[in-house]
Amino acid sequence: MGRHPKPPELRQRTNKAATAATLTESGVQAPALPKGIRCKETRAWWEAIWASPMAAQWLESDVQALLRLAILQDQFWTTPTKELADSIAKHEARFGLTPLDRMRLQWKLEAAPEKAAARYEDDGVDPRTMLRAVK
User: Fold this and answer.
1) Which of 3, 50, 61, 131 is buried deepest, with most CB atoms within 10 A?
2) What is this structure's pTM?
3) Based on the structure, what is the number of domains in the chain?
C-alpha cells in the first residue's frame, strides 16, 4: 500500500488564506445611495469606497450590506454615538475597509507607479544626519 500524492489542484498551503489577492484599481461604478442619505461625508465615503481597489472584490450580493453600512454612516454623522461607531467598525471589517482587515484577508494593494514614486521622492536630505547618540 503506497501513498499517492494529492493531485496538484487539491494541494493547498495551510498558511495562505483562500481570500489572498493583490488588488489594483477597480473602475467599479458606485451604486446609487438611498434617497434618505443627507450628509456630504457619507456621500464622499460612498464614492471613496467604490473607487478603492477593494470594490473589485465585492459581489452584487454585498451591495445591500454596504447600503446598510452607508445608512449607519449617515446616522453617525448626524448623531455620533459610541454604539454607532462600534457597529460601523464591525461592518467595515467585513469588506476590508481598514488596513488591519486587508491584512487579515491577505489583500495587498498594488500602488499606481506615479503614487508610489511620489511617496518616496528624494528631498536631498540624508535621514542619517538626524541621528544623535543616546547616553
Assistant:
1) 50
2) 0.68
3) 1
| 77 inside domain | yes
**In what helix (H) or strand (E) does residue 101 lie, and over which residues does it extend?**
helix 99-105
Nearest to 90 by CA among 70, 74, 69: 69
Residue 26 lies in a domain: no
The alpha-helical segments, DSSP class H, found in the chain are: 40-51, 63-78, 82-94, 99-105, 113-119
Task: Write out pLDDT tens, residues 58-82.
Answer: 999 999 999 999 999 999 999 999 9
Q: What letter does residue 102 receive in the DSSP assignment?
A: H
Q: Which of 126, 121, 106 is nearest to 16 (CA)?
A: 106
Calpha distance 79→88 (Å, rounded): 13
Contact 87, 75 (CB under 8 A): no
**Contacts of 13 by beta carbon, 8 Å cutoff, 6+ apart:** none
Number of other CB atoms surrounding residue 72 within 10 Å:
17
If one counts every other C-beta atom within 10 angstroms of the C-beta of residue 40, the result is: 9
